[in-house]
Amino acid sequence: MNLRGGQALSALLTLLILLTLPACLSPLVGTQCAAGHSPCRGSCVATGSCTAADAADSEASEEAPDVDAGAADADEALDSAALDSLARADVSKDGKLRGDDTAQADTTKADAPTTDDAPVQDDAVAVPVVVADAGADDVPLQGDADYAPLLAYDAAAGDDSAGSDASDDGSACLGCLDAEDATPADGGATDSAEADAQANDGPVTLDGAPLAVDGPLVCSGQQAICNNQCVDFTSDPENCGDCNILCSSGVCTNSTCLVCAAEESVCGQQCANTATDPDNCGDCSIPCSSGLCSNGQCETSGTGRVIVIGHDYLNNRPAMNRILGNAVFLWPTNPVRLVVYEGSANPAAITGADGAINQVATATGRLAQRTAISAADVAAQLAAADVFLVYGQEQASDATLNQLGLDWTTALNTFVQAGGTVVLLDGVYAANSGTCQILVQASLFQIAHHASATGDVCTVAARGDALATGLPKTYLCEKNSVSFTVTDTASTITSVVEDSGQIVVAHKIF
Predict the structure, then answer these.
(1) Which residues have a Cβ under 8 Å from the Cβ of 365 and sit 6 or more positions away?
(2) 302-509 placed in CATH 3.90.380.10
(3) 149 compared with 239, residue with greater pLDDT
(4) Burial bucket for residue 43 (CB in 10 Å: 0-12, 13-18, 19+)
(5) Annotated domain spans of the chain
(6) Helical H runs in 237-364?
(7) Which of 2, 212, 245, 395 has the most CB atoms less than 10 A away?
(8) H/E/C letters for each residue in 430-473?
(9) What are 150-168's pLDDT values in tens digits?
């Protein structure tokens, strides 16, 4: 077969194949079937082979709209409505939708979108369906916090009866807020601290109210800043002299903390020994009309006393001097009328004793009018005296001392009973057994020498006694000091100073 004949045969075979294929594959060409075939149930079949039932189904299929296309169109429409509602929704800060408290989501409508018809999720914003419980005040957001709510509504009928609010364009929503509205649904309160600060032009509280701004702390006068407050260093007991310096006494004066002795109490702005202070006797602010407080008790006017001091002040020190000064100035009269008997005393001791009195007078602002008298003048002079002082009689004999006591008995007892004070100094002397013998003979005090106390450490035993005012706890007993034995049974005798338990200074009240 020549070439042309072969080509003709090949063309014939191709034609036969093409004529055979429609019967096997029922191809549709556009909307037409191949020659010898007719459409039947969406396929091409040999003409005359399609039954009546098949033809009816095929016709309905051709007239019905594309289901997939319709569903896609519905999804697209629903997705657009959801996004539009999202733009209008007013969502509160606490993650709940705003709206009518009585709003109920209409989820029971027969024509509501089914699960199969749910809108597709946008690539940028996932929109989960929010289901509201009937009667709930708020509709909480479901799922991730970044999801926006899909507002409940009747998609098919546009039903607004579920209690949802209506937006400006008539669409149903729960708690709508138009984008162009100037006032937020929360009543106008801004939702950011920055906006609040700008609105109030200053710092704000949590509820948006402006805070008061006072500026930097400025103190007036002599005050200074301590712990963000103004204080006065001169009087503040918590910042006395400087910040955070606390006064345990609770009193700061002139930038210095008030420090009281163990036997003293803080009374007002000062320390007071309530055992002896006539203005704070027994307690703060209890004054004594007599001006004398001893052992916490006010003494009545006219109280007499006898004070025996086992020092003659030949040698003296400030602490020991205070005892004699206190004895002379017990009564608050000023000046004190002081009558003294020198007799056979050592001139140096007299000078020492007078120096002690002057020391205390200077320290306390008191005065003493000193009058020296002879033995014969005692009776006459005591009537006009407040205090009678007998110096230590170093050179007198026992006979002389006993005689003086006998001679002065009446005058001394009368003086004491009238409220006068007798002060007798004594010491260890070679010439006699003690100046105290005068008191024994006058029946004023039963007392006698015990032993020398020179060089011993004497202890103030009765710190509440008026004689102990201003005394330290202990001091050195100087030369010629002596201790005593007391046999007097009076209940008003106080051992003020002692040496190893023996009396060195005794105070008897009448």
Answers:
(1) none
(2) no
(3) 239
(4) middle
(5) 38-181, 302-509
(6) 318-328, 347-364
(7) 245
(8) CCCCCCCHHHHHCCCCCEEEEEECCCCEEEECCCCCHHHCCCCC
(9) 444 444 444 444 444 444 4
